[in-house]
Structure formats: structure tokens, C-alpha cells
Design goal:
The chain contains ten helices and ten strands. The protein is an alpha/beta fold. It has two domains: 88 residues, Leucine Dehydrogenase, chain A, domain 1 (Rossmann fold), CATH 3.40.50; 123 residues, NAD(P)-binding Rossmann-like Domain (Rossmann fold), CATH 3.40.50.720. Bound molecules: NADPH dihydro-nicotinamide-adenine-dinucleotide phosphate.
Length: 284
């Protein structure tokens, strides 16, 4: 079975849209997201455009701050401080990667945790680990939403996560733990990788290597979540999983594109609404 991220993200966004309408009616406030992008990375441009479109579709106001490659770190930090202060902005997202001369860590730290809709600020990371959060990092939360939609059993299952980045692998592990999976996290130092991935009931792959996972690494009947987005030399997109091969052994698999990617954006919409609700309710 293919787990259709386009379908499920449309479902999530429809719910957000209805809630946004209700929120605007009740409070007179339109939830708003500021997206900051520095430089001319073509992949970032596509992501930013998709985020803007999603905002339009659900009724969230979206403001894009497109800064030149030459922007200094202090200029970017000043913009973030300004956005932190603006009551009409509820969510701030700084598109990564940033140019080399700007410290990603300093920038993420500068965002007010209440407006940190990517949930990358250490305060929000800590709250995720403690299981006491307002919003969750978009990609792993999107994976959980997809699994929920398809009624995939997680409790007591062995979930193997391939990749340990702060954006995907690590938060994914915490969410799976919270859902009562037994979790194994693998990375580039893991020995006998295929022996471990073959034990997975749920295999989440986020390593950034095109078609790295082949059928012989997957247990028959496993659920396979492919987070990877890789550009092949011919320009086509490929995930981290050799989809054609693996779908013959897996019970369910996410396609690339059209799997986890759209879910990430749908959760961003949900997070922006949550951020607006929290900020407006706190004011009252
Ligand atoms: P990172 O490069 O930050 O992390 C990759 C992880 O994979 C690291 O933990 C690394 O291990 C591990 N890894 C790399 N090679 C191997 C290997 N041969 N064997 C085992 N582990 C390996 O990537 P991200 O987590 O940011 O992204 C992963 C992929 O997901 C990318 O393709 C990215 O484009 C995509 N992505 C998709 C999103 C979506 O919305 N669908 C959102 C975010 C990312 P180590 O730590 O030891 O170096």
C-alpha cells in the first residue's frame, strides 16, 4: 500500500482551514507566518513557495523576507528580534540552510520559542523530550500524522530510525518512544546496519542518500517511511529508499515526492495556528 501524503496533508490542511476561519471569527485576528530566506538556494526557493501557497490555502497570512546572500548575521538577528516583537506575526520560520557566514545556532536561538513554528529552539526541543509541548518539529510530526491516518499500530512495535539529525531522526525517536514503540536509532557509525533495519516493524529513513535502502534491508510486511528528498543527476527527485523494490516487500510505503514532504508543510500550518492561539489567549 502507498501512504498518500498529498491526500493526508489535504485532510490536515482542511481541518486547519476550518479552525482558522473559526479563530478569525472569534478573535478578529488572522494567524500570520513570517518566512525568512537568505540567499538564492534553488531548493529553498521551492520550499518557501510551497509554504506560501499552503498559507494562502488555509487562510493564514504569510510574509516573506527574502534577504540577499550578503546579509550579515547581525542584520538577520535584528530582523528576527523585530519579528519577535511584532504582535501581528505569530510564527517565524528561517529557511535552512543559511549562508556559511551566518551561525545557524545563533539564529535559531534568537527566535522567540512561542513563535518557533519549526520547533528547533532548544526550549522547544527540551519540551519535546519532556513530553510537554505546544508544537512539534514539522517533519517527524507529519510522519506521526500519516501513521495515525492509516491506523498503523505503533504501540509495542520495533521502530528503527535511520538518521539522527536534530531536524528529523532525533525528534522522530522521541515521538516514537512517546507512542510506546521500541526505538533503535542508526547512523553512519552503526555496524551491521541491514541486520538492524531488517528487525524493524516500522522503518523511518532520513539520511539524504538516494535509494540507499534496498529490499534486502526490509522485513517482509514492514511499514517504510521515506523522508529523503534527493535530486538525481537527471533532475528527478528520489527518496532514500529504492521504492519499486521495497514496495514489493513492505506492507506500506511513502512515495517521494508526495509522501512526507506535503505532511511537513501541513504540520507547519497547524503549528502556526497553534502559535497564534497561544499568543492571543495569553494576551487575554
Ligand atoms: P542530515 O544530513 O542532517 O543527517 C543525515 C543522517 O543520516 C545523519 O545522522 C547521518 O549519520 C546519517 N547517515 C548518513 N549516511 C549514512 C549511512 N550510509 N548509513 C547510516 N546513516 C547514515 O539530514 P536530514 O536529517 O536533515 O535529512 C535527511 C533527508 O531527509 C534528506 O534527504 C533531506 O532532504 C530530507 N528531508 C526531508 C524533509 C521532508 O519534508 N520530507 C524535511 C527534512 C529533511 P551521522 O549523524 O553519523 O553523520
Amino acid at each position: 500500500m502507498t501512504m498518500d501524503g498529498k491526500l493526508v496533508s489535504a485532510y490536515v490542511k482542511e481541518n486547519v482551514k476550518q479552525e482558522v476561519e473559526g479563530f478569525i471569527k472569534d478573535t478578529g485576528v488572522t494567524p500570520a507566518l513570517a518566512v525568512v530566506v537568505v540567499g538564492n538556494d534553488p531548493a529553498s526557493a521551492v520550499y518557501v513557495r510551497n509554504k506560501h501557497r499552503a498559507c494562502l490555502a488555509v487562510g493564514i497570512a504569510s510574509y516573506e523576507y527574502a534577504l540577499s546572500e550578503e546579509t550579515t548575521e547581525s542584520e538577520l538577528l535584528a530582523l528576527i528580534r523585530d519579528l519577535n516583537q511584532k504582535p501581528e506575526i505569530h510564527g517565524i520560520l528561517v529557511q535552512l540552510p543559511l549562508p556559511r557566514h551566518i551561525s545557524e545556532e545563533k539564529v535559531l536561538l534568537a527566535i522567540d520559542p512561542k513563535k518557533d513554528v519549526d520547533a528547533f529552539h532548544p526550549t522547544n526541543v527540551g519540551r519535546l523530550v519532556a513530553g510537554n509541548y505546544d508544537f512539534l518539529p514539522c517533519t517527524p510530526a507529519g510522519v506521526m500524522e500519516l501513521l495515525r491516518y492509516y491506523k498503523t499500530e505503533i504501540d509495542g512495535k520495533h521502530c528503527v530510525i535511520l538518521g539522527r539529525s536534530n531536524i528529523v531522526g532525533k525528534p522522530m525517536a522521541h515521538l516514537m518512544l512517546e507512542a510506546n514503540a521500541t526505538v533503535t536509532v542508526c547512523h553512519s557509525h552503526t555496524k551491521n546496519l541491514a541486520d538492524i533495519t531488517r528487525q524493524a516493524d516500522i522503518l523511518v529513513v532520513a539520511i539524504g542518500k538516494a535509494e540507499f535502502v534496498h529490499a534486502d534491508m526490509v522485513k517482509p510486511g514492514a511499514v517504510v517511511i521515506d523522508v529523503g528528498i534527493n535530486r538525481l543527476p537527471d533532475g528527478a527527485l528520489a527518496g532514500d529508499v529504492a521504492t519499486r523494490e521495497v514496495e514489493a516487500v513492505a506492507s506500506a510505503i511513502t512515495p517521494v515526492p508526495g509522501g512526507v514532504g506535503p505532511m511537513t508543510i501541513a504540520i507547519l500550518m497547524k503549528n502556526t495556528l497553534t502559535a497564534a492561539k497561544k499568543q492571543i489567549l495569553e494576551e487575554k
